[in-house]
Write a structure and sequence with these properties.
Elements: E1 5-10, E2 16-21, E3 31-33, E4 40-42, H1 47-62, E5 79-88, E6 96-107, E7 111-114, E8 121-129, E9 132-141, H2 150-153, E10 163-176, E11 179-190, E12 197-210, E13 213-224, H3 226-233, H4 237-243, E14 253-266, E15 271-282, H5 284-288, E16 296-307
Antiparallel strand pairs: 1-2, 3-4, 5-6, 5-16, 6-7, 7-8, 8-9, 9-10, 10-11, 11-12, 12-13, 13-14, 14-15, 15-16
Length: 308
């Protein structure tokens, strides 16, 4: 399951454009320290939070603010950079890892490569009608490394190796007044059939821009079949006997929901820094697995990128 980093760029119109990237995250419970002493942010993700975020976007449009969503897929502007990611060892873990991550975007006709929209992926896409693109992609899919989690390693539970997925997607971009909005629907089937499939539905929109700084918001829901959920959250009878955990077999359904804010700051014509803060909350059987130490986690990301 991929993590998310912000991707921002300044369009020719002067509006900020936003997408999501695999990024740098801070894992916590319902609360996460922002890194500023004495400051704490609660990003509890539920229906009311999503509703409030969408209401803020509507208000921005009504006020005529230059709210700018991530519409990088509609441009050929390249992006290449590097970020640092602090993320949970796996969704539901109480342990964190820090690692470098790429920031990349290339859009040709029809080929593309991007680390936007939650996963590192590449493939081909075509515009079938103004604002609507459809395509197919090959994507990197993360796994689970027991050595990153004290909970797993202390119980002798195995790694789940990273993999790849093949899939299709449809992406719709539209302006509601001054507010661009992007809606993405994507299906990802792992190339290893035992790892199953996932489907994403993601909405991102710009909310604020002042000078060289801009911000936006996004919400996402991801569904998984029983194989996909079970690859991370199942406990076999053999593992139960050695780890001292109850046996568990996950079913399919809603895997997680998330809500987040994106930001970017232009340093020069070619360089920019970018990041995000997000909360992801496990749902369904994943939330009830014996391997889930906490059902919600907060993520923070940062990176620097060169535009070419």
């Amino acid at each position: 399951m991929g993590s998310i980093q912000a991707d921002a760029t300044l369009s020719q119109s002067g509006y900020w454009q936003w997408k999501a990237l695999p990024g740098v995250f801070v894992r916590g419970g319902d609360n996460v320290a922002t890194g500023f002493q004495g400051t704490e942010v609660n990003l509890t993700c539920h229906a009311a939070s999503v509703f409030r975020a969408l209401m803020i976007l509507s208000a921005a449009t009504a006020l005529g603010l230059p709210a700018t969503a991530a519409r990088a897929e509609l441009t050929n502007e390249g992006l290449l950079g590097l970020g640092l990611r602090m993320r949970p060892a796996y969704d539901g873990s109480d342990s964190n890892v820090i690692e470098p991550v790429p920031v990349v975007r290339y859009f040709g006709r029809p080929w593309f490569v991007r680390s936007t929209q939650g996963v590192l992926e590449g493939g081909a896409r075509v515009e079938v009608t103004p604002g609507l693109n459809v395509g197919a992609q090959l994507a990197y899919e993360s796994g689970r490394k027991a050595g990153d989690s004290g909970f797993l390693s202390n119980r002798g539970l195995p790694d789940v190796n990273p993999g790849a997925s093949l899939g299709v997607h449809a992406e719709w971009d539209h302006n509601f007044g001054p507010m661009p909005v992007t809606l993405l629907a994507r299906l990802r089937q792992q190339t290893q059939s035992s790892r199953g499939a996932q489907a994403d539905l993601r909405l991102s929109a710009g909310a604020f821009q002042a000078g060289r700084f801009g911000a936006g918001v996004f919400v996402q829901a991801t569904w998984a079949d029983a194989k996909s959920t079970g690859a991370i959250y199942n406990v076999t009878p053999q593992q139960s006997a050695t780890a001292g955990l109850p046996a568990f077999s996950a079913g399919g359904g809603l895997l997680y929901t998330s809500i987040g804010a994106l930001w970017g700051l232009e340093l020069s014509k070619e360089w920019m820094v970018l990041g995000n803060i997000e909360q992801r909350r496990l749902r369904g059987d994943a939330a009830g697995s014996p391997l889930t130490e906490r059902t919600s986690g907060n993520y923070v990301s940062a990176g620097i990128a060169y535009r070419y």
